[in-house]
Each structure stands twice: as structure tokens, then as C-alpha cells.
Protein 1
Amino acid sequence: MSFIGNYLVSQIDCRDVVTQKILDVLFIHKKQNRFLTLFVYFTLCFTEKHSLTYIYTAFSHPVKLPGIHEFTAMGLLDNRMIDYYDSTVQKKIPKQDWMKEKLQQEYWDKGTQSRQSKQQWFKVNIDILINRMRQTSNDTHVLQWMHGCEGEEDEHGNLQFKRGVDMYNYDGDDFLAFNDEHQVWVATLDAAVPTKRKWDEVTALKDYTKGYLEKECMDWMKTFLKYSTEQLRNASRPDVYIFAKKAKESSNVVLTCLATGFYPKDITLNIRRDGRVLTKDDGVMSSGVRPNHDDTFQRADYVEILRSDSATYTCEVIHPASNKQIHFDADSFLCIYLF
């Protein structure tokens, strides 16, 4: 994950064309009589890599736009939001059911105190930057901080630290970043140089930052992955539906086999005619595996057939992770039409 251009953009795993847009936040900042648009667009692909990231965004004064708060903080596990805080709610809240179920109230209380403290820190430091850069306080300015870690599974399935990220962005420009390998702060703008020099002299800060990225962040990531996987496995079996709808040709119907609510995403879905698996050559089309809103997946395959076809059509779904194999005879469903 890296800052590209004006803001944060996640990496895409090109092995999988199925991606999920899970976050789309629009910030508008008036600068030099023009509007600068900052956006976050995350895509999620399932690989052996995992990430835990926290993003903080603070404006110099309230922005009168719906859904945009003076201060916002969010936690992201594999680019999926797991917790949230803003200056209006003033509470750190879970955004996943497993976060709410697995973590005690003490965790959320301490998290709320931490977010409130950071909200004040951001307010003070935006004012410092405005003065340092000789800007007018009448304009809207924005300071952002992203920090977190990325891990990768080794050949034994153990999650190992790959890299950490701790960077600041001001008014849409990269400002300051921590070089984890060399334990130094890197200033991107001239205005960041005084901060770099000051922070480089604080050994305890550099040691803490490195320790958090490489150890504490990774420990939390492993814990969160364990909790999320436990919940999803309990609700991973697919529900299967088969139905038909009218085709453009009045003599035909479109037979559809839908599997939904399964996790993980690996699944086999076949439409059989008299026992033979139909393929693309037979006109079978597929939606591919797509994400549901609850972190499970769905897939629908369909084929157009003659209404008068007397063959036996079967929907076959095999989901290895849940040890579930389902066969549905389609004959009795051909009278159901969905418009």
C-alpha cells in the first residue's frame, strides 16, 4: 500500500480479477481557488498477504459536507474496515460483528480515550503547520496519518512481518514518512524538515515506532485474523437456489444456479444435463465469485435451454472448506419465473 499522487491507493493482486470496492471516501479541499479531490479506493483480493492499517484524517475546521467530519479514524484489516471513530460520535466503535463479540468493553474504552487524545494532537499540529507554511487559517487544510503493517505467510503458514508503514500527508501531498529499516524520518516537503530533525533526535520515539510496526501491529493482526476466520468458518456453508426466468425467445428459459453465503471463496459449481457437465461451449455463463456485504461470497451460473427440453438438469455445488456437496434437480423449478 502506498501514497500515489494525492492519496492512499492499495495494491491489487493481479491473479484475481474479482475485486471488491470496500471504501470510497471523498474529501474536498479548497486550495488556491480550486478544489483538490482526495480519495481512497481500496480493492480486496485474497492472497497469502495480510495487512492491518489505521488511517487518521483531520481538517483545520469543520467541513460542512454530509458524512465528512472534522476528525476521523478507522482501522482496516486486509483493507476492510474493522473499527471507526469520528469527532461527532466521539467513540471508537466496531465495524465487524466479530470485533464486537470478541473484544471486551475495556478495549473500546481505551480505544476511545486514545482516539480523543489523537484528535487533540491533530488539532494542535495542523495549527503548527499552518503557521510554519504561512498559510491562512480561513482556508481548509487537512492532515492525515497512516500507520500499520503488512505480513506474509511463509511455507509453513506462519505470518511473518514483511514491512511497516508510518507516514503523514498534508493538503494532499506526502509530508513525512518513517524508514523502518534505517530508523530515520524522511521529509518529502521542506516544511517537514524541522519535524524530521526533531523526531530523529528522539531515540525512544524511533524505537517505539519500529517496535510497534514489527511486533505489536503484527500481534494484533494475527489476533484479528484469528477472530475473523473463526466467525466466518462458522457461517461458511453455501445456500443454494435454482430457478428459471423467461428468455428473450419465448420458446426458451434461462436456468440459473445460485450459491451464496459461503467462505472461503473456493467453490465448484456445475450445471449438468442428464449427468453431463455443461461448459461454455454449451452456452453456460457465470458471474464468477463475487463478495457479499457480510464478508461471504456468492456465485451464479446460468444457461439458456429450450422450454420443451425433457432432459434432467442438475445444479451441483461443491464447497471443500465446509465439506458440503449439494445436488439439486432442476425439473421441478422450471415453472418458476422471475421478472
Note: Residues 1-47, 332-339 have pLDDT under 50 and may be disordered.
Protein 2
Amino acid sequence: VRFVADLCKLAEIAEQEDGSALGFDSSNCQAIGTVPPFNEFLNVNTPLQLGGLFIEQFAPTDYGWQAMPTHKSFDGCIKNLVLNSKLYDLAHPGLSRNSFAGCAQTDEYCSRSEALANCWVHGTCVGSFTKAKCHCDAGWSGPDCST
């Protein structure tokens, strides 16, 4: 299993002094693990922490867990969790701490774009890290969903 963070700013590119190919280290932008045999499906009966860590002082054995999460938190946005071609709904988690709906880093493009101010009437503004655009409701079209 490999988790890759899109648009990760922590990847390192090293220019070689001898002019050979650039070195690229993306290890800070991904996590790799091994799936035990016969466990190819997402097991939601155990902790799955995405985007950060909520660590409470408790004994993992009280819950039948064999391990306790011990990694640093993630500051960013997560969407489109796909496993074995199935899209998982992240809108209603069983437990959420210091996490909010939406993505502040991308939503700001929608809030500050005057050209897309009418988008919300007949569509939804969807921001990325570089721009915003309207996804129009059925029957509506145009840059701001007004036609």
C-alpha cells in the first residue's frame, strides 16, 4: 500500500554538481506499508487516521489494538480517498478532532473571486491551489453558471 500526498511541498530536488540527473526525494510526501494476506479491503473496525493524529492517553489494549499511532500531524487537505476503485465518504467521520469541512487553502479562491460571485446561485464553486471554477447544476452553464 502506498499513500501519496498530491501537491506536496516537502519533496526535495537536489542538483548534482557533476551535471548528472537531478536527484528527487519524495519520501516526505508518501507512506508505504505492507498489507497482510487476505486483508485487501479497508478495515473500518480499527483506527484509520487521515490527515493528523488524535492521541488520547489510554491503553490501546483496552480496545484490542496492537499499536498506538506515533507520527507527526499533517497540515493540508484530504479528499478523494479511493481504495480498490471505491470512493470513501469522508464527510461523516466517526471521530474528528481539529478538522473542519472544506479546505481553507483552496476555498479562499472561491471567496475572493468576484468573477465567480454568482456561481453559488446555480452551481458550486470548487477551488484548487491555483484557481477556482464553477461546477454548474443541471441545466445551467457558463463560467459562473448563469446561462
Note: The first strand starts at residue 2 and ends at 4.
Protein 3
Amino acid sequence: MTAHTYLKTAASIIVLAVAGLAIWQGMLDPSRILPMAVAALFLPIAGGGALSLVHLKCVDATRRSAALASLYKGIIFGGIILAASLAATLGGLLGVFDGTANISKRISGIIIGAVFLYYANSLPKRIASAKMQKILRGNGWIFVIAGLGYFLSWLALPIQMAGTVAIGIMAVGVAVVIIRTLGYRRACQPSNEGP
């Protein structure tokens, strides 16, 4: 099997897992049936719509394959976040642990940090010119540090302050990347002055 087939299979399994967890939770707590129905249908509808757009927009097979792989990864990561949150809430309903809302927030924050780390690590690996590669490498490092801070905030800090600290760390990282990128763009623009 190809990597594309593995991604497609994993995305399908995640979609089914999220739908199953949402339906199960809706059956245990009928007052939440509407939000759980939305959660169960979100990934199939959003993913299906995005897949159809990729097939319509990407005529070139190579570009279509790359776009589909990226889309499947997005569905997988989004599904993991939803599935973890639903599983934590379901665990609280089943009496596995107390503090369902806190566990759900913490798990979601940890997974979002891990996903951000994954994408930040892949940023410098994109093919680009030497100058662009330098800025991508620097921005990748900044995003890895910000993602690690976000991840560790949700992992180690008290839940009351984890969200604020995590978002603050991420905001600083994004601001530094924006400033670096704008500085790079200014440095690369040709000057209008003569010799």
C-alpha cells in the first residue's frame, strides 16, 4: 500500500471513531444529543466538501495527490483532537475519572500543541530557495519552541492558568515569526535607488 492509501484509511478510521464516540455520548446523556450529532457529522461533511474541492480544483495529478495527502493529515489531526476530547468527556460520564471538563481541555490542549509541533517541524523541510530556506528554518525553530511551550503549558500548569499561558506563548511566537517574515520581505525587495 502507498502512503496515500494509509492516510486515506487512517482518516476514515478517525472519522468513524469520532462519530462513534459522539453517538455513544449522546446516548448516555440525551440532553447533549444535538451537539453530539453535530460532532458526529462535522468531519464527514467538512472532509467530504474539501475532498470534492480538491478534485475539482487540482487537474494535475501530482498536485492533487499532494493536496489530498495534506487534507487527509488535517482530517486525521482534527479527528484526533475531537476523539480525545469526546473520549475524556465520555470517561467522565462513565465514572472513569472526575473533572471531565478539565481533563477534556487539558487533553485537547496537549494534542493541539503536539500537532503544532509536527507542522512546525515540517516547515523548514519545504523546498525553497536558499534565502527562503533560511527564513523557513528560523521560523520553524520559533514555532517548535512556541509549540513546545504550548504543549508543556497544558501538560504541567494548573488548568486555571494553562490556557492563558499557552495562548500567550503562542502569540509571542506568531508575532516573532510575522516580524521576521516582514523583515525578510523588505530585505529581498529590490531598491529603487540607482548605483
Note: The chain has a mean pLDDT of 77.
Protein 4
Amino acid sequence: MSENEETPSTPNQVRRAKKKRSRFGKLSRLRWSIPGLIATVPSTVDRQSCERCREKNIRCSYQDRADGKSTPKAAHGGTQQATLLVSNPSSEATDSNINNSLSSHRAEQNTQLHWLNSPELPDAKHIKVLVDYYFQNFHPLRCFSFIHKPSFLQKLNDKLDSDLRNDALLHIMCTLGAQFFALEHSDTVQQLPTAFVLKAGSQWASRAERILLGNTNHISIDGLMTAQLLYDYALRMAKFTQAFILSALMSRMTQALQINLEYSSDLLDLSPDAKLSTTARECRRRLMWSCYVTDVLCSNGVEQLTLIFEKDLKIQLPCSDWNFLHERPCITRTLNGSPLDFIPRSTIPGDLDSNMGMLAYLIQQLEIRRRVLWYIKHLDQAKLPWLPDSEFAQLDRELQTWHASLPSNLQFTASAIYLRKESSQLGALCLFHCAYHQTMLDFYRIGTPELFKLRSPFHFPSERHNFQRHLQYALFKEARTLAAIIAEAEQHGPRMIGDTWLPTIAYESNRVMLFYLTQVTDPMAINKRELVLSTIPYLQSNLKALKAMRATNAMAESLSQGAESILQKLGVDSNNILPLPNVILDDPHLAFPSRDSQDGPGSQAADSDLHPLSIFRMARKEVPEGHVLVSSERRSPASADSVPQPIEQLPQIDEGIEGFGHNLDMFFAPELARDWQVSEMILESGADSNGLLSWLGMSQIGEYA
């Protein structure tokens, strides 16, 4: 005990002294229990901690200043360590300021994560850590689960002592694992700049690319896996031209490897002379389906860009993850719903769906999506959508049937969310449902041609305004559902929203909701106030998610800036996040039962049919040579005066709106709503790497669907 301290005499003083020493002990243990981090505490605690260091003959990392306070000294070879601020009312502001001011260089030095940016792979211990992060976070996403984890880890353990410099697959796996490793470190240990997280392991990806492209004369399954992972990494880094070229390379590699065909008719592995194991054959199937999904998302329903066609896929859908993990051979459906023709009927199980998992259902949904996008781009050849035998009605029934067929463990419910989180599949479940609702959003856009610049929009006569009104409300509801799904996933951590498609989905969700509130609904409607107030949390949650995605997706930076700028213009505070209302994630399926028959425009380049944020449009922006887009004449959609309003109208503005103040007038004042141009909701055809992705630029976009 210090000489200056008074010896406790009464029982109360003894208890207080014990409590004080206990508190000092906890803080001291906290300080030394976190390697590389120093907890800053009030000056009295600093002095106590220093005394304890002297008692234990341990070098203290603090030195007393003249004013009696403590400052951190250099540690670990002179590298100044970042401080971990113990939460207390006086330090919260300082904590925020310090975290926000960390530069990428300081983060690299202070957190001792500089090895993530080394040109060479790390040691065996760190390689195993990165591979584990790859399997936990990236492997379940989309259709990337084509590597059998136990088999891969066994082979990796056998070759860790050998030269790994030419192992392209391992290099890109470590890169993707490094991003999620740095992301979790930033989320749970010490905040890192998003640029540091995004670029973690980037040199390993560059080496994997050089190895792959330098060995195109040797095509292999591992090489195709590498190309698929490099494709996704290119999207993360906003290298759209590279991603577009890699997608074409992958298609040619699948043809050379012939993985679009079953390797053997012995699906149940009954023959003793099988050259490939059950696991190896399932890996080939999953890899082929992964390339198919890439082609669907890259081509966006444009025939000129399509390289993999469903009619050429003579393989069954992937089996469930449990069967794949435990190497159990089984029979599943093909893409058309039936088993393969050569399978003996006696071996076909009664319930084929029990052998399929999330991956198979996602592939089925994306096949429907491709036909939905083709339909949107050929409205001039389609029947009137309100007719019962129209293409619209048929696709609507297919989408409803697919969603109704989902087993309970694939639905977006509370139990399924926590079940998938436990198995590291919550991110996959989020993308699974976002893909479906994004398809529904694209499907219902035929009722809002002003926002989506459809090439051949339908004209809705006055007797069909009710049909168009339902389409517009369904579109709005899908956008809110997408926001709710992303918000739910984001609450469980930023790694749950790590798929490269999600930034575009979140951005599009906000664009649709804002257009509906400012252009479709009546500013004088009786329930406009309630509608706006209930929608603002969805807009804010999408923006919050976009900011969280910046660490794993370069495009999210521009998208978040664009989304934030438009919310600020509308007077919505993006920093004061309101609680998200409870939402029922049901589908606005409407069994919709004209347009005037006119000839559609002539042939156009593929990019004229695509959304500005599509991969091909973004890649074309990076190519200096090329033709200039020429917009064809478009039939005028229903005039603004004839657009039906989905809510009842009042002769005057609701008095409750006065509580909003002037900053939300854009949502309610009729004269301001008329001045709010549709072009405000349209983004440019690309984003500058150093600038803001504008929501303006209708004239530069041309038509897209």
C-alpha cells in the first residue's frame, strides 16, 4: 500500500478498500490480457497499475507525465500501439475520434497485421487460419461451395512443407480469407480502415491471376476453381473488365473439361472401377453450376452475352451440403425438374427434394430469373400482361410455385436465421432470399417504366390503371422486403452481407422506395405521413448496410455516397438511425390477369439493354474503344396525370405533416413533388473510382431493362 494512502479502520472503509483494489486488479488484468493493445484508464488507475508492474518486476508501458497522467510508450520494437479505450462517459468521444483518424499505414503497423499485405504467403499457421476463414465466410456464399473442405484440408496439411508459390487456388483462397479475417478483427478487436480490410491479401490474388493466365495451355479443375474465385474477387475490387473477361474464360474452360456432362452414369458409386470418387464428381457438378450462375448474373438475360445455355447442362443439381460433406452419393433433380434419363427407375428415391439443399433451390430460382430478364427486354414481343395466358402470368405462377416449394429450413424465419448462423450459412440465406426478391422487383418493374427506362414499355389504358397500381405497390413492397432482409443479416455482423451482389441490391432498393414515395404516391394522401415515416428506417438501414459493405466491396463506397446524398437532399438524417419496424417477409404475389400493339425498336448493342450497374455496362465504361450508344424511340408510357395513386386522396394536406418541418417537404408538397425530376433517381452508367456515384444523368444512360 502507498505511503500516502490512509489505512482503513472501520468495516465500511475496509470494504471500500477491497472493492477499489478489486477494480484495479480487473483493469490491470484487462491491460495485459490483450496482446498489442493498451487500455487507457483514469490517471489514478494508471498509477496503481504502474505500482503493480513494479511489484511484479514487469516493464510498464506507461510513463507518468508532469501533470500526473499517463501516456503510452513505444512497444514491440518501437512500434506505437493503438489504444483500446475502456468504455466510460468521458472517453467515448475520444474513442470515436481516434478510430476515425487511423490511417491505413498506422493500422497496418499498430495491429501487427502487416503480413496480410506481404507478397508471399504467410507461414503454415497463418495459412490454416486464412483457409478456415475462407470456409467459414466465403465458401457458403452463392454457389462457391465447390471445394470439399475435409479433403482439401487433408491435402493442404500434406503439402504445407512444400513449395506453395505456384498454387494459384491456395493464393486466392487465402486472399478471400484475409478479407474476412481483417473484417472480423476490425469488428471485434480494433477498428481498421476499410481500405486496409479491402486490400488485405491483394498481392496473393495478383499472383494467383499471373499463375492462372500463364498456364492457359494447361486446363484443370483447380484452375477453373481459381478463375471462379478470381472473378468474384475482381467484382469486390470493382475491376469489372477483368471480371467480364474471366467469366468468358470460365465458360471455355467448362467446355474443355466437359463438366457440363456427368462423368459417369454410376451416380451411386456402385462400380469398384470408378476413376473418380463420389466427392470429386460432386465437386465437378458444383463447379459447373457455379459457372452457370456466374453466366446468368453476368449476361442479365441478354442473348449476346450468354455463353452457357441450360439445354447443354446434362448434369443433376447439387446435393445437400450434408450429403456433400459426408461423401454420400445420391440422386437429385435436373434443372427441368426430373431425374437424369439414364438413371434406373428402381434407384430413384421417392422424395428427390430431400437430397437437395439451398444451392439447388438457388439455381432453380436463377434459371427463372434469366427468363424474367429476357421477358423484360422483349416486351415488344410479349402478350398484354393482364391476360391470363400471358408470359407475365406464367412467370408469376412459376415464381409463386418455387417459393411455395421451399422447405421450412430455407425460409427467412427467426429459427432458420439462427440455425443458418450456427452453421456459418446466414450470409448465404440472406443472398438466397435477396436473389428471389430482387427477381420479383425486376419482374414488377413493367409498371414503372419511368424509373427503369424500359426499351419497349407497356401502355396502360385507363381501364387498366388498377392493374398498374398493383404493380407499382408490389414493386415498392419488394424493395422494402429487400431492405428488411439485409438489415436483419447486418445485425448479426458485417460478414453476413459479404456477397458481391448485395451492394447493388441495397442501392436499388432505396432507389425504388424513394421513387415510389416522391413520384407515385399522392403528396396529399391521407396516409402519406404514415407511409413515409414507416419507410424512412428502411432507407436508413440500407445506407447503414452499404457503409458496412465498403470493407469487402469497393463499389459500395460510391453507392453509399450516392444513397446518402439523395437522403440528405430529401431531409432524411442518415446518422440518426431509426429502429426498423417489424416486417412480414411475405411476397406481394398478385395473380394479375393493354398495351397498344406496336413494333419494337431495331437491333441494338447488348449494353443498351442492361442496367447501368450491370457487370457488362461497368466493364464497357473501362474500355476506351467502342460504339456510341444510340437511344431508340420509345413509346410514351402512361402520362403522369393518368398514373393511378395507390392511396386515397384528400383535398388538403394532412395537418399532422406539419410536425415534420421543412426538411421533409419534398415528400409532401405537391409543387415540390412535381419539380422532383425522375432523373434525380437515375444513376449514371458507372462510377469514378475517386468520385461520387451520382443519381443524376438520365440523358447519358440510354435505355436499359
Note: The chain has three domains: 11-101, 114-355, 419-591+601-701.
